[in-house]
Amino acid sequence: MQSEQGSAGIMVNLAETEDSIRGVARSLLGAALQSATKAGAPAVVFRVAPTHYLPLSQQQPLCTQLATETSVRPLKFADRSFSKVEDFDAWLMDFAQGQGDDGKLLYSQCGGNCDPSFTFVVSQQTGVMQVATEVYCGYARDRKVNLYTLSTTLRTACPAPR
Questions:
Q1: Where are the beta strands (DSSP E) in the chain?
Q2: Are residues 152 and 44 in contact, defined by beta-carbon separation less than 8 angstroms?
Q3: pTM of the model as a whole
Q4: Per-residue pLDDT tens over the stretch 82-96
Q5: Rounded to an integer, what distance in angstroms lies between the CA atom of residue 94 and that of residue 87?
Q6: pLDDT digits (tens, 9 = 90+) for 61-79
Q7: Looking at residue 144, what is its pLDDT?
Q8: How far apart are CA 66 and CA 101, in angstroms?
Q9: Which of 4, 55, 72, 138 is the most buried (most CB within 10 A)?
Q10: Main-chain dihedrals φ then ψ at residue 156, nearest 5 degrees
Q11: Cα 130 vs. chain centroid, distance in angstroms?
Q12: Sign of dihedral through CA atoms 76, 79, 84, 87?
C-alpha cells in the first residue's frame, strides 16, 4: 500500500513529529487499517526496518550468524491486543528500544550491535487490534543514518480450493 521513511532521532520521536518513526507509523497504520476495513481484508502487514547498514566487512560475526538464522526462522513473540493504534505505537516504541518484558527478550535474542527489522500482522476483530510479531535480527545499521523504512500492505484472504 504505502512506504515511507521515518527518523529514529530521539527529539523528533519525543515530539512525535510527522517525520518521526512514531508519526509515520501512526499515519501509515491508521490509513492501512481503514483501507483493510473498506476492502474486507483480514489483516495489514506492517514492516519497519533500517534504511542503511554497515558494510559486510564491518559486521560482527554474531550479526552475520543471526541474519542467516532469522531470515529462515524469524524470532516470534506472543500475540498482543490493543484497543487503538496509539496503544500499539507505545508498545512498539518500548519493544524496539529494549524496554518492557518483550523488549528485554528481544535484545537478549538479538544482541551485539545487530539490529532488528520488524514484521507485524495486524488484524481487527470487534474493535480490537490483534498483533502477531516476527523479527529478523540482522546486520548492524549505520548509526549515522537515523532513517527507517515503514511500509504497509493488505493481506487478503485466498479462497480454499474445492
A1: 2-7, 43-50, 75-82, 115-125, 128-138, 147-155
A2: yes
A3: 0.92
A4: 999 889 989 998 999
A5: 11
A6: 999 999 999 999 999 999 9
A7: 94
A8: 21
A9: 138
A10: -95, 160
A11: 14
A12: negative
